[in-house]
Amino acid sequence: MEDNVGINNLMLKTIHPQKYYGDFLSTGLLPNGRESCSFEFSQIQLDKDAGGEFCGTATVSNSSSYVVGSHDILVRRNVQYPPCFSLEISRSSEKKQREHENTPVEIILTKIVERQLIFSFDQLLNSDKVLQFVVNSKIKYSGNPVQMLQSCLQTFLASLCTIEFPQLLLEQFAKDDVKIAENDLKFESDETKRLTLNDYPVATSLSLYEREDGPPIVVYDPPSNIKEFCSNTVTAIVGRGSKILYLSGGGSEIIKMDDLRKFIEDSSKFQQDFECQLKKEVEKTY
Q: Which InterPro entries match (predicted)?
């Protein structure tokens, strides 16, 4: 009997996938067992020795992806206006990716950093503000993240927690030009200065799954095979105190205000859990 049920479900998934997923969602669950109104949990691991001299790496993994974040940290004269941060996201495999594949995620995260919502840029200056550190962040992923923005944001934040800036000074006899030679620098102290985050936001999404035999079902962070049957998707980045740092999306159906309000409340709880999880990992590693 159980074999017949399994065969029937497999046939339904092939012949009528919209009903197959709709039957699951009507019970409050996704096919993988996650509750439809819950967010995907990820494991976080920090490695303080795997990155550069003054930073480590962060790995965020879940059922759909494996994402690694690292940084290249440079030092230059404090020229104030040119950008002191960059972000590059790419697949870990050698396969050529579509040029536009991750551009929206890079743009969103870069804009949030430029508004100094994640960390303040004054932390990138040395004590006399003559030197400035430049953080070039790199994120590589494998698999197919259910929520690309969330996976990259979590990895980015975790990797930032591994940065420890050396306390450097520029020698007085250094030539007054843009280039800095290694012998132009000296250590003010043997201690390092850890980068401090202003916030630990999370990226979440709400979608409305269309059914033929009933009203739409609210789903959080739906995988792509379910998302294709959704009429609406709203994406948010939520920080401490339910502060909305980014909000976008829409569609053909109206999202009820009660559903949207609950989504932001649930995102805020998810943010608190993520912040606690990351801080515990930092304490364990450092």
A: ExoRNase_PH_dom2_sf, PNPase/RNase_PH_dom_sf
